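Comment thread on ticket #2218

A.B. wrote:
> Attaching the input chain for the structure job we discussed in standup.
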Amino acid sequence: MNILKHCIFISLLSLPLLAEAHSSLTILSRAYNDDTTERTTEKRFYALFQQILRDEFNVSTEWTNHARLIKRLSGPQPVCSYNMIKTKQREKLFLFSEIPTTMFVQRKLFGYKETLQGLPETVSVSKLLADQKTFGIVASASYQELDNMFADYQHQVASINSADSFAQLGQLLIHKRIDIIVNYEYTVKSFLSDEQYAQLDSRAISEYPEFINGYFACSQTVEGEKAITLINQYMRTPAMYEFLKGVHYDGFDADTAKRMMHVYETKYYVTPLKPITKINN
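C.D. wrote:
> Ran it. Output below, let me know if you need it in another format.
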């Protein structure tokens, strides 16, 4: 009986410690963000999320490829990521923040110079598909306005699903297995040599708006819901405005960054302590 009482006493003493224990939450990052500039940006985001979430979670980070990242966000593990494109399909699978963590300059079309020769600076993907051009895409990625088009022209679209999908896509283009890829300029440069990249040309896509938004996203878990709530609360603070301003001005030219911050101020009401900056049309 004394032994039983002793065990109960120890258990009661440990209850406050258990109550104070934080849940674990893993922040997933894409493994292809591996050059010095991108790693620095990733560290800035991770430090920010640590600051926002550390009172509620034991936060860790993990690098993974794009396909695994999407799969884990769709599963039961307490994981989150950031700069994720929001689509209707993904909103059924993930939880998203109300405000984007980053805006990006849109993807472009890339192809050999002779393939794109004679095309205007901005072109329609729908028209190119109708003209029998072949495309390469990453299966786990969302191309937003283009997704339905690619589904309608499956016979002209090579959909890559592998651990190194983005690198494989670049090689399909270089070896002329496809005519065109849709990607960010930075990503294309990351997987091709300077000599290979010099053979390519690019065009803007008429179906896309000027910028694309990337959001904080979490799995549909209790931890994910709590993390999204904390992120949403912090996103409209002046401190978040200063963080976003730093990231966007470091990542883009001043004019582009200024337009992006204007969207944050006027559409999402993420504002500094000073008055909103006006842009001359």
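A.B. wrote:
> Thanks. Noting for the ticket: DSSP finds 13 helices and eleven strands in the chain.
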